[in-house]
Amino acid sequence: MEEIKSVSLEMKDYIVSSGAETLSWCMQCGLCTNLCPWRLVPGEVSEAFNIRKMQRLGQLGLEGFEDEEILFACATCGMCQSNCPRKVEIINNVRSMRNTTVGAGFLPAHLRPIAGSIHANGNPWSGEKEKRAEWQEGLDIPAFSEDTEYLLYVCCTSCYDTRSKKIAKSIVSLLKEAGVSFGVLTAEENCCGETIRKLGDEELFQKLAESNIKLFNSKGVKKIITTSPHCLYAFKKDYPDYGGEYEVVHYSEVLSKLMKEGKLTFKGEVGKKVTFHDPCYLGRHNEVYDAPRELIQAIPGVEFVELERNKSKSLCCAGGGGRVWAEVPMGQRFGELRITDAVEKQADVLVTACPYCILMLDDACAGLEKNDVLEVMEMSELLCSASKP
Amino acid sequence: MDKKTGVYICSGCGIGDALDIAALSKVATKESKVPVCKTHAFLCGAEGVAQIKSDIENEGVNTVVIAGCSSRVNYDVFDFGPSVILERANIREQVIWCHPAEDEDTQMMAEDNLRMSLAKAGHIEIPEGYHGENMVKTILVVGGGLTGITAAIEGAKAGYKTVLVEKSPVLGGWMNNLFKQAPLKAPYSDPEEVDIAVRIQEVEANPDVTVYTSAEIKEIAGAPGMFDVKIEQNGQEINERIGSVVLATGAVPYDASKLEHLGYGKYANVITSQAFEELAKNGKIVRPGDGKEVQSIAFLQCAGSRDAEHLPYCSSVCCVESLKQATYLKEQNPEAAIYVFHKDIRTPGQYEKLYKRVQKDGAVFVRGDVTGITEDDDKNLLIEAADVLTGATIGTEGVDLVVLATGMVPTTAFGESLDAKSENEEKEEKPQGDTIIRSNLLNLAYRQGPEMPTLKYGFSDSHFVCFPYETRRTGIYAAGSVRAPMDALSSIEDATGAAMKAIQCIELSELGSAVHPRVGDLSFPSFAMQRCTQCKRCTVECPFGAINEDDKFNPLPNPTRCRRCGICMGACPERIISFKNYSVPMIGNMIKAIEVPEEDEEKPRIVVFACENDAIPCLDMAGINRLSYNAWVRVIPVRCLGSMSLVWIADTLSKGIDGILLLGCKHGDDYQCHFIKGSELAETRLSKVAETLDRLSLESERVRMEQVSIMDYDQIPGILDGFAERLEELGPNPYKGF
């Protein structure tokens, strides 16, 4: 006889109390599963992970969702959530379900060093705390003070990763050129905590949030420019619940505004076919679609082309929700599909505006051996290259 | 009436460019010797119409034949009053819009259409409506629940005397049992206080409504406008003269004692939704078994519904009722655990909002079959179910109470079934007769049986696909859950619609006119009784029970029950039934008017008998969409395919016409025939044609029947050309030239 699985309303209530307030709103139509990028790739995770079913297990408090392949598969791209007919906050539900195990101390092996580094160093990249501001050497960036308008908050990735440091430097250069009043507190900052919260470690996230908020408030921070859309999300959507109320913008928003005001112009010609990959956290999560397009199209000589899946329908690079640290075999990476999208449009440059996207797309481009036809660039890098004649 | 015919040919809309109008005129002037024949380039314009009107007034023209657009358009423009006979020959939609211009065959088609119209006009006589004696305009409403009360109020508000008869001592019906009602207004997310008392008060206070409670209908005799109704109340008989009737006797819950597999009768804490309403109405929701306060509950949807062993259908309201009941418990205890086991959650109308609300309240919905219910030592119930959405069998923790959401059974479903077929001598050849169940609701003094025919599952008759308020008993309109499962909102709407239908019937009967779908038709069938052989076909085949029998077994027509479809005319083997403006010889002469070319001309001819209700508009739409088909077809509109007389088939084939196509409505369980059985009867009659054809040494394939709905115009070329191709294979009709 078939095993009878016991419904546990206690478990369900526990998940709901961890933040899955909309879990029971789900009517199980399955649109989420069909829109999920996991449906576009083959492999074990794709076969095991079904977001609709995962939520169903949560609704009934049934065992089965805690398998690592299922529980940690979601890249929190928000494709399902932004299309859900019941407005179920699916990502919150995923986060809460992860919290039921992570909160109890069970984190998958590959994520333990990440959490450990955040605990010890305030960043997930095992970078020494003292070296957080090392990338600024020779750049002459003012420290944030009461007299500066914006705090420039640089993502941990761009503080430590060699490739990613270029992004931070480019952004600084552009902000300076446009005459923005900004300063940094990099050395004293901690990771924004966006991703560790998505991974379900609520406790660690709170610790990070509280320390950052304490720092920002003590320095009188009112406005923040982020280099990463993930930090943007954390400050905008997570921090207010912990007392951190700031005006937060992504660097693309600031630059686009200044460009329109005539304070930033691009004199260098870039005679290339350029396309743009909307990062999930910039697009679907924060609904910034126009700013990067306006900037790219302002560069003389650029032939801009849209990818087939763009703006709110953009395909995830698979770097969110902690997936940036997941080992995924070739042939199962969303990033590869994205590179193929760009190659199909015969673009010379695939531009994006997120350090995670850069990591994922760089990997995919190299993996597919497309570096000879396609260059992956962070938007700030492209803009910088065009800022001088 | 001495006819003076005027033929008016319109050359507008491209007709003049496509056809030789002078040659067409000769059909009227030379062949038919019509005294007046005029052409106009814009006949439906003021000048064209004025010309016709002038001829009527000054030249004595009293029979107008217009060759131009379809009779389905410009009918208001070409209206010359009741004393003028009007016939329209369609040479636009069905000729020049479907066939090449300046073509010999197109011209022949137009000429034949005019010939047929002239033949038809020659037969038409102006009908005079039937006027019964002592006709009244009172509406009888049977059943005093929400539907009946609403119908009575709506009828009275429109100025009609209404008689409301209720079996039980109080009005209100099912609504009286409820603690709260599903919301009737936006935002549709919160149950409302039951408002039936307000409605009862309104109907009782209305001076135009006579209410009889504890009363039943003993007999309804007569016909629309003049029903004689015997009502029994407390042992006394009351007589009322009634114009039309609304049947609103509703439905009752399915008998839960048949649901032992769901624990009913076995476990004290398994109850019906009706019993749960009682519990809620009595105050705190406690278990019937031990009085324990209910903290957790499981609603089992489709308890005996959508189940081949019980009610095979969905009752449409149970989901919403259970959702509503879930809010009762949440109100009492926000922490209460609620399970809803369902096949699908069906929330018609706006009730998705109630579903959302209950979801947001945290109820657990389980889609799948309940596979078992057991009771633990504390009398809590453990439910096992196949959860489709995880693909696993799941088991619940013990719940305090299980509520079975039972479906509804119409009140017309109870009683001995009267098999209409038993009267039918040639069972196998006739279509299945009506099913009538002696449910003791209307007690009609009709030879066809005492109650409304029932649909599948015992619901009262209604033309549910096309005209849900219409029934097979003219002047009797079923409304509310007696005709289909429906909720309060739908019942209110249904009652209003039925009241409107009842009013239309009263007014049209008074005028001597037919009701839907031939509103305005004053003709009615007359019987040349001296030739009647008492074969009973007319009385049996009339879908509306319009024909009773007198005490000598002769058919006794009830003109106000008649819908003027002509099915009796088609049924009569002696051809004794005719209408002033529709008869067997009339169509016979239209067939005769068609010119049939010699065999060596290789111009076959096909007669299409087309139903006026769907097939004709379908053909017109083919024209409007400029679809083209062969020019061999000659279309003869008929009131209903059921009015087709077999003699027309013989007339057509013996004339040398190569094939006959019957174009009628879809029949079967989900029929679209306006007259219910017409197209089905035509098909049955057709099955006998093979015999006739064999006698004439003709292939039975020369007669074909096709079903089309009004939307099937795109299929018209395929149907017509496919038939023409087959006829070409068969070769010409050997009777050509005889």
UniProtKB/TrEMBL annotation, chain A:
Q: Which InterPro entries match?
A: 4Fe4S_Fe-S-bd, 4Fe4S_Fe_S_CS, Cys_rich_dom, HdrC_iron-sulfur_subunit, Helical_ferredxn
Write one Pfam family the protein is assigned to.
Answer: CCG
**Which residues constitute the signal peptide according to the record?**
none
Quote the cellular component terms of the Gene Ontology held in the record.
plasma membrane
Ranges where the 4Fe-4S ferredoxin-type domain occurs: 24-88
Query: Which SUPFAM superfamilies does the protein's record reference?
Result: alpha-helical ferredoxin
Sorted keywords for this record are: 4Fe-4S, Iron, Iron-sulfur, Metal-binding, Oxidoreductase
A GO molecular function held by the record: metal ion binding
Where in the numbering of this chain does the Cysteine-rich domain appear?
154-236, 274-362
Task: Look up keyword Iron-sulfur and say if it applies.
Answer: yes
Q: What is this protein called?
A: Anaerobic glycerol-3-phosphate dehydrogenase subunit C
Organism of derivation: Desulfosporosinus acididurans
Its taxonomic placement starts with: Bacteria, Bacillati, Bacillota, Clostridia, Eubacteriales
UniProtKB/TrEMBL annotation, chain B:
UniProt-listed Gene3D superfamilies: 3.30.70.20, FAD/NAD(P)-binding domain (3.50.50.60)
Q: Which GO terms describe its molecular function?
A: 4 iron, 4 sulfur cluster binding; metal ion binding; oxidoreductase activity
Q: Does the keyword Oxidoreductase apply?
A: yes
Q: What region holds the 4Fe-4S ferredoxin-type domain?
A: 523-552, 553-582
Q: Required cofactors, per record?
A: FAD
Q: Which UniProt keywords apply?
A: 4Fe-4S, FAD, Flavoprotein, Iron, Iron-sulfur, Metal-binding, Oxidoreductase
Q: Name one Pfam family in it.
A: FAD_oxidored
Q: Which family does it belong to?
A: Belongs to the HdrA family.
**What's the protein here called?**
Pyuvate ferredoxin oxidoreductase subunit delta
Q: Which organism is it from?
A: Desulfosporosinus acididurans
